[in-house]
Amino acid sequence: MSSPALFQPLRLDGLELENRIIVAPMCQYSARDGEATDWHMMHLGQLAMSGSGLLTLEATAVSPEARITHGDLGLWDDGTERALAKVLDAVRDYAPVPICIQIAHAGRKASSEAPWRGGQQVAPDSPHGWLTEAPSPLAHAEGEVAPRMLDREDMKRIRDGFAATARRAARLGIEAAEIHAAHGYLLHQFLSPLANRRSDEYGGSLENRMRFPLEVFDAVREAFPAGNPVWARVSATDWVEEGWEVEQTIAFTQALKARGAAAIHVSTGGVSPRQKIAIGPGYQVPFAERVRAATDLVTIAVGLITEPRQAEAILVEGKADAVSLARALLYDPRWPWHAAAELGARVRAPKQYWRSQPH
Ligand code: FNR
Question: What keywords were assigned to this record (predicted)?
Answer without folding.
Answer: Flavoprotein, FMN, NADP, Oxidoreductase
